[in-house]
Structure formats: structure tokens, C-alpha cells
């Protein structure tokens, strides 16, 4: 795992956007795997800036998002569909028909997950996957468990994830308890992976990711087995690593 240490969130966002821009410039019809949550918001802002400066062109880019809450409609302002349009898709020249997000409105998990895997296969896989990191080590919504998940699956969100995400909802009772997420196997198939983490509250989990053992109890730890992973983390997030 290549580690890029940055001073702060701004620097993290610029570095991450530059890496994604370089992917788009080297292959303008690439497939980007995208994440939501608070961490990538700055990265998306920087990508919009690069687009406005005519440095990158999204017209042939395809995207596949990691996850979506089960039960939320596209117009729900907490859905990841809504998030992606607000933060990126509405501000660049991407063809929205080339953007894919698991469909949270499909009631039957089997149908929802199989159809998303089909989409990913048709896209020919992901060239560059952007990830955030949950406090419990989740990537996508793959929560700690006894084995690594393989394909897109329906998960029960961990109590800690529901609490962490409650900040985006009016009350904790409004946070959906289930989500559809690419599996760990799906994520590991990406050609390149870029994981971005900031803040002191992520220092413990970053230490486990960087220096701990590979275990499904820390789902992100599996990234150590991937051949092309870059972690961009700020000083606070890296503060508990001995490499400091
Ligand atoms: C969201 C996702 C999650 C988040 C993680 C960190 O699509 O896949 O794994 O990346 O929960 O969230 P933030 O960035 O809000 O700390």
C-alpha cells in the first residue's frame, strides 16, 4: 500500500482529485468507482474545478457507486443517488446514463444485488475505485463480520455506522438499517484503489489498516492484498501509526 501523508483536508482533496483526473486523462472512457460520505465531498469539488478549467472531460466517463441505502428513493436528500447528483454529476458534463448506483428502491435484495453485479460486468469492471473508511473499518457498507463478502450484497448496518450517519438525518430513527453495497470481492477486482481518510477520529482505524493484520473484522485490511492501493491520509488520521 502506497501512503501519501498530507497536512489537511484541503490537500487531501486536491491530491485525490489529481489522481482521479490523471486516470480520466489517460483513459477518457474509464469507469470510476465512487464513494459518498463526508470525506469525498472536497475531492468532488476539486474535480468540478478541474472540469471548469477544461482540464478534464467527463463526457465518456462511466461511474459505478459503491452503495445505497435500502428503501430510500432517488429524490430523498439522504439517498446516495441524490448525493452524487448534488456533489458531482450535476456540475460536470457526464452522461447521466453512464452513472450507476445500486437501486435502493428494489425491495428484493437478490434482484437488486444481482442486477448491480450484471451492470458492473457489462461495464467491464472498475478502473479506479475511490473509497472512504468507516470508523469500524468498513469499506462500502461492508461491515465487520466473520468472512469477507464477495459480490454486491444487502447488509444490516452496524450500530456504530447508524450512529455515525445519524448526523445527516433529522433523527437516528430516520437512518435506514439496511443498504446494498458492492462486496469486498467486487471492490478488490478494481484495477486501482484510492482510499482517502482524514481526522483524528479515524486515527485508531487507520493504525489498524496500516499496521494491523488482515481480518474480516477490519474489512478494509483486505486492501493490503491488492496490488495497487494508494492511501491518502492527513496528519491527524496517521497520528497513531508508528511510521510517524
Ligand atoms: C459511502 C461509503 C462508506 C464511507 C464511510 C466513511 O459510500 O462507502 O464506506 O466511505 O462510512 O464515511 P465518511 O467519509 O462520512 O467518514
Description:
With 244 residues, the protein is of the alpha/beta class. 30% of the residues lie in helices and 17% in strands. It has 7 helices and 10 strands. The protein has helices spanning 9-26, 41-52, 80-87, 109-123, 159-165, 184-188, 203-211; strands at 2-6, 31-34, 62-65, 67-69, 99-100, 128-131, 153-156, 178-181, 192-197, 229-234. A 7-stranded parallel beta sheet has the order 1-10-9-6-2-3-5, sandwiched between helices. The chain is globular. The mean pLDDT is 96. Residues 35-39, 66-67, 132-134, 138-140 line the site of fructose -6-phosphate.
| End-to-end CA span | 16 Å
* Total number of helices: 7
- What overall form do the CA principal axes indicate? globular
Q: Which residue ranges are poorly predicted, with pLDDT under 50 across at least 5 consecutive positions?
A: none
Number of strands: 10
The gyration radius over C-alpha positions equals 17 Å
What's the main sheet like?
7 strands, parallel
Helix fraction, binned, reads 25-40%
Bound molecules: fructose -6-phosphate
Q: What structural class do the secondary elements suggest?
A: alpha/beta
Strand line-up across the major sheet: 1-10-9-6-2-3-5
- Average pLDDT over all residues: 96
